[in-house]
Specification:
single chain, alpha+beta, five-stranded antiparallel β-sheet, five-stranded mixed β-sheet, 18 helices, elongated, disordered N terminus
């Protein structure tokens, strides 16, 4: 038994001895005087959070210590533009450092202009010590006449590091050494490290970065309560109206069945029963429709699992973890898209199932890659840290080709064989029934535009909090709120699309499939419109890169919500349509 354990113990010992600085960062446990690495991440305009550059793109200098390399630990970290570079500062665990110069530069004209530009645009920078983020400002301007404005830079970094036992639990940065910038001067950079005993538990060390006064404000609670009451009212109203209306419809159709053929011909027949021979007709563009619905199913599953995982574990404590989790879940749940998209296409009687499978697998990833490629092209032009490395793009392409596509194929085959048989309660007529003219507000386009109003109204307060956490300096952590709002949005969407579909069918228009999907998906239009309002009235963003980044990713986010809600609306509506036509006697 002892002999069999020796290779394992040797391997563990080698892993513990290999690269001490990286091991400490991962275990977060230090010995006295052991090296603590301070990473310099990015620098950029304060009002443009996503416009970031390498810290040493400005003429800062490094400390005297040897270079320590950093690799992207997760795919999400690489996609988010994390560019950690070693500061070169000598910091030992519990080892205080008095004010000490670590480097100096001679301020050339190019250096002077670079610092002036950074100070004018309120550049800030980010650092990490033991995975704890630290923020600082490059400099400031002495206000006065425009021609007499003086620019100052902070040259001294005072680090107050709190420790508990052998772990770091708190880091604070104080910028000092206000120095006026002049061409030709020698600019010394200094630092100081003060170690303080702290009573903050290690598991609570990220709590200082959260903002409970913002996220748990009474307005947030009130909006959730308001949305919940709206759901109860809407569900009750829809149930009451539809039950009473459908009961009258069933009674009228029962009386018509008792009439003879002559009386029925002379009677004035109308309503949703008249389109029973066309209501289950295959929609136009069946490949695209089934692929959209399959992708929507997958997004519902991914979103729900992501929220539950984030609710269970604090994913915000690790750089890029939430994005990496979402990418992994999307790849792993590809059979969901294939199963539901393939089975729906099979029910439509489609024969080109391979084409449908490829479209379903590539639909959402290709939209994301198209937008990201455009933004990445601009990021490369700006030399921004947000530019995605080539190897990262290769890794994403490999995930799409060797994970998503095969799993989607498996799901498609299962869907076609398990639930791909048509189960319509009514036969489909050979010749399509002509659609009668109706008033403009009963047209499908009008129903689609109105369909997204109430779902958006139920979530727009939460949308504000999500926007603020993503585009400004907040960490979103109230995933319990998000889960509740997600459920509310689904319920409201289902209720609204069922009502819209009932009115459409009652006007003898059988084009309910695309209408129900687009009515639910029209929430994307209102979210994107709100994104315009948020950009112009709630932020101070500027510049081509930040504007393209904002509206590009807002389009992707809005589209994803639209796909999700459109699918949910179609699912609820299809069950409703199947139910009402299966309970009516059809000649």
């Amino acid at each position: 038994m002892t002999t069999s354990l020796r290779p394992t113990l040797l391997l563990v010992s080698l892993l513990l001895l290999w690269s001490p600085s990286q091991a400490d960062e991962h275990s977060h446990v230090y010995e006295d005087n052991e090296e603590v690495v301070m990473w310099m991440n990015t620098v950029g305009p304060y009002h443009n959070r996503q416009e970031t550059y390498s810290f040493f793109s400005l003429p800062f200098c490094r400390g005297p210590l040897h270079e320590v390399g950093h690799y992207h630990e997760t795919l999400g970290e690489a996609l988010q533009g994390v560019e950690l570079e070693f500061s070169g500062l000598e910091i030992g665990f519990k080892d205080p450092v008095l004010k000490k110069e670590y480097c100096s530069i001679t301020l050339t004209d190019a250096h002077y202009k670079a610092f002036i530009y950074a100070i004018k645009n309120h550049y800030w920078y980010q650092m990490y010590i033991d995975d704890l983020p630290i923020w600082g400002i490059v400099g400031e301007v002495e206000e006065g006449d425009r021609s007499e404005r003086e620019f100052y830079i902070w040259t001294h970094k005072k680090l107050d590091i709190g420790y508990r036992g052998n772990q770091i639990v708190d880091v604070n940065l104080t910028s000092e050494g206000k120095t006026k910038l002049e061409v030709g001067m020698t600019l010394p950079f200094t630092y100081q490290v003060v170690w303080k005993r702290s009573y903050i538990p290690f598991t609570k060390r990220f709590d200082k970065y959260l903002d409970p006064n913002f996220f748990q404000h009474r307005i947030h609670w009130f909006s959730i309560f308001n949305s919940f009451m709206m759901v109860i009212f809407l569900v009750g109203l829809v149930s009451m109206i539809l039950m009473r209306t459908l009961r009258k419809d069933y009674a009228r159709y029962s009386r018509e069945e008792e009439l003879d053929d002559l009386e029925r011909d002379l009677g004035d027949e109308y309503g949703w029963k008249q389109v029973h021979g066309d209501v289950f007709r295959t929609p136009s563009y069946p490949i695209l429709f089934s692929s959209l619905v399959g992708t929507g199913y997958q997004l519902v599953v991914v979103t729900l699992i992501c929220i539950i995982i984030a609710l269970w574990g604090d994913l915000y404590t690790q750089r890029g973890t939430l994005l990496s989790t979402a990418i992994f879940l999307y790849a792993a749940t590809s059979p969901v898209s294939g199963y539901f998209g393939g089975s729906l296409y099979s029910k439509f009687g489609g024969k080109e199932w391979i084409k449908q499978m490829v479209v379903g697998a590539a639909l959402f990833p290709s939209l994301i890659c198209g937008v990201v490629f455009l933004i990445n092209f601009i990021a490369i032009y700006y030399h921004a840290s947000r530019a995605i490395p080539f190897l990262t793009m290769v890794a994403v392409a490999c995930i799409c080709l060797f994970v998503i596509l095969p799993l989607n194929l498996v799901g498609t085959i299962l869907g076609r064989n398990i639930s791909g048989q048509p189960d319509n309660p009514c036969r489909v007529n050979t010749v399509p029934r002509p659609i009668p003219e109706k008033k403009w507000f009963m047209e499908p386009w009008s129903i689609v535009l109105l369909g997204g109003v109430l779902p958006f109204g139920s979530i727009f307060i939460e949308v504000y909090f999500i926007f603020t956490s993503f585009w400004q300096y907040k960490i979103y952590y109230v995933f319990g709120f998000m889960l509740l709002v997600f459920v509310i949005m689904i319920v409201v969407t289902v209720c609204v699309t069922i009502v819209c579909t009932y009115f459409l069918l009652n006007s003898e228009d059988y084009r309910w499939r695309w209408t129900s999907f687009c009515a639910g998906g029209s929430i994307a239009l209102y979210i994107y419109m709100y994104a315009f309002y948020y950009y112009f009235f709630k932020t101070k963003m500027y510049g081509l890169f930040q504007t393209t980044f904002y509206f590009g990713y807002m389009a992707l986010g809005s589209g994803a919500v639209g796909l999700l809600c459109g699918t949910v609306g179609y699912i609820g509506t299809s069950y409703f349509v199947m139910k009402i036509y299966s309970t009516v006697k059809i000649d």
